[in-house]
């Protein structure tokens, strides 16, 4: 019997329920107002091989800005750092704290540029993202100023089921063109986005393979691609997400998780300990794959990537993802449904 606890698809679907309120359905039917960047992006819009609209800037040094549409019509602004290592490259999604443009000390995806470049040089393909109602992914006023939209419970659920699914769809296109290996996907998240990343991971592992072969082991997978999670200052409770159910399910997945928080910040320390208790696996064999670091400082979320801590944090992230994703023996394989060939 494997040392990893087995979880059925039925259990996934029960425990990963996102507590989306009725407003989520209303929001899904009403696309947000386009901002000025969206209007320009639409004029340059192209379609991916699967027919998904994809707006993007010209690549420079393997870096390009993207605007990815979600199923409910939101425009998610991302930056893609293409790996120089080709089709066996591991890939990483970086998410800043999803607290909205009105939050104190809010940051957008550009804050991650130094870390993304460091990961790129280490052989990773990287997407940094502004999830809905954050960073550039907000509607703009007629004067070009971001509107102070509030993030509600339904938004957090839709970030996991919509925004991150759109980002993965983009990465899957890169996989199909042999620019990366989607089977080695990781997520580095901060603050409230940590639980969004965990919810998306549960959904990804719950996906059943395409019914394109007689036996399960021969079928083409649609998920089970998230191989590692790194959480900085995770919020233990996020409205709209069934946190307890998510952590219970994530605990049983073969996904290494690294939780980091400032031990000098009482709230962050308590949250990190609660999250880690929910996913901790006992035993020496899990010492390096399920671990927690509480620093002696009050450092919070993205601040770990600032100042004197930046270089150490970057190295910590690269080392963990290299060991638990990049170095895995998971060679590139065709992920196209055989029935469509």
Please give a structural write-up.
With 341 residues, this protein is of the alpha/beta class. It has a single domain (9-210, 218-329), classed as Alpha/Beta hydrolase fold, catalytic domain (Rossmann fold), CATH 3.40.50. It has helices at 9-15, 22-29, 36-43, 113-121, 153-176, 193-206, 243-251, 266-279, 310-326; strands spanning 46-47, 53-56, 63-69, 75-81, 90-95, 124-130, 185-190, 226-232, 257-262, 290-295. Strands 1-2-3-4-6-5-7-8-9-10 form a ten-stranded mixed sheet, with helices on both faces. β5 (90-95), α4 and β6 (124-130) form a beta-alpha-beta unit. The chain is globular, with a radius of gyration of 19 Å. Residues 1-52 have low confidence and may be disordered.
Roughly what is the average pLDDT, rounded to an integer?
A: 85
Helix percentage range: 25-40%
Q: Cα distance, first to last residue?
A: 36 Å
Helical stretch count?
9
CATH superfamily: Alpha/Beta hydrolase fold, catalytic domain
Number of domains: 1
The biggest sheet, with number of strands, parallel, antiparallel or mixed sense and barrel status, is:
10 strands, mixed
Order of helices and strands: HHHEEEEEHEHEHEHEHEH
Structural category is alpha/beta
Number of strands: 10
Percentage beta strand:
15-25%
* CATH level 1 class label: Alpha Beta
Shape: globular
Radius of gyration: 19 Å
- Would you identify the CATH architecture? 3-Layer(aba) Sandwich
* Cross-sheet strand order for the largest sheet: 1-2-3-4-6-5-7-8-9-10
Indicate the low-confidence ranges by residue numbers. 1-52
């Amino acid at each position: 019997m494997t040392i990893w606890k087995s979880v059925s698809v039925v259990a996934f679907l029960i425990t990963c329920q996102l507590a989306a309120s009725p407003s989520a359905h209303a929001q899904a039917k009403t696309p947000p107002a386009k901002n000025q960047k969206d209007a320009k992006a639409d004029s340059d819009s192209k379609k991916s091989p699967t027919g998904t609209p994809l707006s993007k800037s010209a690549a420079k040094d393997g870096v390009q800005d993207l605007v990815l549409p979600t199923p409910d019509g939101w425009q998610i602004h991302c930056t893609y750092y293409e790996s120089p290592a080709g089709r066996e490259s591991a890939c990483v999604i970086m998410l800043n704290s999803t607290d909205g443009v009105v939050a104190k000390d809010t940051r957008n995806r550009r804050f991650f540029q130094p870390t993304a470049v460091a990961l790129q040089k280490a052989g990773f393909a990287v997407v940094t993202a502004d999830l809905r109602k954050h960073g550039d992914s907000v509607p703009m006023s007629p004067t070009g100023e971001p509107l102070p939209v509030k993030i509600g419970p339904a938004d957090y659920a839709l970030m996991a089921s919509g925004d991150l699914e759109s980002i993965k769809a983009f990465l899957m296109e890169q996989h199909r063109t042999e620019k990366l290996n989607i089977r080695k996907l990781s997520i580095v998240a901060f603050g409230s986005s940590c639980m969004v990343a965990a919810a998306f991971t549960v959904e990804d592992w719950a996906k059943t393979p395409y019914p394109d072969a007689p036996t399960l082991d021969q079928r083409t997978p649609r998920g089970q691609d998230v191989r590692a999670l790194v959480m900085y200052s995770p919020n233990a409770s996020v409205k709209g997400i069934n946190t307890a159910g998510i952590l219970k399910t994530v605990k049983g997945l073969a996904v290494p998780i690294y939780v980091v928080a400032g031990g000098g910040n009482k709230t962050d320390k308590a949250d990190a300990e609660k999250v880690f208790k929910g996913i901790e696996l006992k035993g020496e064999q899990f010492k390096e794959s399920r671990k927690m670091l509480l620093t002696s400082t009050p450092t919070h979320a993205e601040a770990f990537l600032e100042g004197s801590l930046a270089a150490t944090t970057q190295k910590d992230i690269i080392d963990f993802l290299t060991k638990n994703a990049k170095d895995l023996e998971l060679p590139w394989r065709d992920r196209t449904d055989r029935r469509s060939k």
